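Minutes, project check-in

Agenda point 3 was the complex the collaborators sent over. CS summarized: two entities, 666 residues total, and the question is how they sit relative to each other. Sequences were read into the notes so everyone works from the same version.
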Amino acid sequence: MYFKKILVVNRGEIALRVFRGARELGIKTVAVYSDADVNSLYVKYADESYHLPGTTAGETYLNIEKIIDTARKCGADAIHPGYGFLSERASFIQAVEEAGITFIGPSSKSVEMMGSKTGARRIMQEHGVPFVPGTTDPVESIEEAKAFASKIGYPVLIKASAGGGGKGMKKVSSPEEIDEAFFSAKREALSAFGDSAVYIEKFIEEPKHIEVQILGDKFGNYIHVFERECSVQRRHQKIIEESPSPFVDKATREKITKTAIEAAKACNYYNAGTIEFLMDSKRNFFFLEMNTRLQVEHPVTEMISGLDLVKEQIKIAAGEKLSYKQEDLKINGHAIECRVYAEDPDNNFLPSTGRISFHRIPTGPGVRVDEGIEGGSDITMYYDPMLSKVIAHGSDRSSAIQRVKMALESYSIAGVQTNIAVLLWLLNNRSFLSGKYSINLIDKEFLPLVPGAWKEQLDNGREDAAVALSAILRERSRNSANNLRINEVLNDNNWLDTE
Amino acid sequence: MIPDYHVDLNSKEMSVKFVGTDQIIINDREYRYNLEEVNGNYYILRLGEKVFRINRVSGEKNNQLLLIDGRYFETEVRTNLEQKARQVLSNVKQSNRNSLIKSPMPGMVLKLKKNAGDTVAQGESIMILEAMKMENDIKSPFSGTIKEIFVSEKSPVEKGAQLFLIG
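CS then shared the predicted structure for the full assembly.
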């Protein structure tokens, strides 16, 4: 047995995902929950659950003292951080280590080296890994930001040093915009990561986002599990991810995976990690950052490789050697993931809150759903609005796309607005299907059709069907008193008669 | 043509007229239809040549929550009389109250970008609302002058709370 009991310091679909991996290995699972999550699905799935009083992330899922205390109290011998929250906080990992509990992830030292985006860039520079031009230290003042931006030339990106997931990241096209962007990025960084440090880098035109999954054990063995492409993004938040990338050829794959392993070695990394790159149209790639944790999009890698990354993480943390060699791994078919968010595409993509009144998960060949909700779940304003992830595997890219489309069409969520229709629009988009598109796909092709027009392109009569049913039901209830016309409608229609 | 019903679909309004027992005209599109009620929550609607499997999540006489192929629709059905009453009511509102901007979601007011008396253009950013850890730009749906601001920075707002009065 690797561990007796694992505490997961996270919520939603990823907490559930880790519980599933732990349970497969015969390990007991512990959930922690805030006031707002008392009835969340993942809490019901765990073997034990403990309350973290409060609703804000700071009071609950970021409350190191309270979490360590809970882990001690319940007798957990390992902690899994999921993604976001404390997953990349070196001080947390240190506190876990000091409490004599195993952290399922890298050492605090590796996280410290890679967790600060600016520090990571310095290390990459030393190890000859190509990276995007920009500052290697946090930018302290607005004056410094302005001076540096003019030096490397606009447009630039202001990014949170502790960041990820698009939070605390702002694009600045001209000197007039920099004041507002700088302070807004700092505020977002502080509220999302508890650290307001930001840095600046050159904005690369029309890049693709390509990342490499790596695994390392505590004995210095490394493997990569190929690349993922996550170029479909809105406000730097990934929406659709796939593996392998339709853009990366064999030679590029060899180069980029080798570079990724070099990057992992540079910080003595162990456990699962991801090295993110931007790739230009000539397939040159630049180190963007290393995510020292499990990624949201890890399922696509699992689907094409057959590995279970959560189980690998647990085994590595328990001191096992890697159970795979590089030559054991090969790409089997193609996998694609769509993130389902509670948001209203026609209303500026504002998060949509409320109670899930109906929830039915799609099934079918090659379909997997990592869900964070069920019927009755409350979607609140306190946390990330991602509800679930729909993943499909197929023998090639087009069959994976077809399967994920069918899955999304039969996914029923009611009570909040979701982005499912947007995902379907994207999956039918010509540039997406060709594989030749950049991270600006949504800005360039989708946003000009908001609000409204994009929906009509794919409507195929559904709006009229919804209107017709509503009107017919009203008509029937109106006529049910004398029951005359309704009977005609129900029984006396000559549908099969051809006139 | 005088419609039988007016139907709001999400934020769009359409008109519906029934002809005979199996024909329906939606705006100017005419269909033959047949509705099979599998149970109160599941319907098979044939509209023209197309077949729709519709999941009715919940509904009352005038309001329906429907799912079709993963798409979620909220509808409100009004008779001509109800439509007229609504128009009268909204005219009264318009003349009395100018244009009100309400909060599309619960959150916290991070920054007000305008003061009372300022002019705004349609689509111009007027405030930043923080929710779900993201900063959301709230844009004015109308052009005009800001008559009144109902919220202050750092204050929480509920969904539907009054934010700005624009005249």
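Noted in discussion: Chain A has 18 helices and 22 strands.
Follow-up: revisit at the next meeting once the mutant set is ready.
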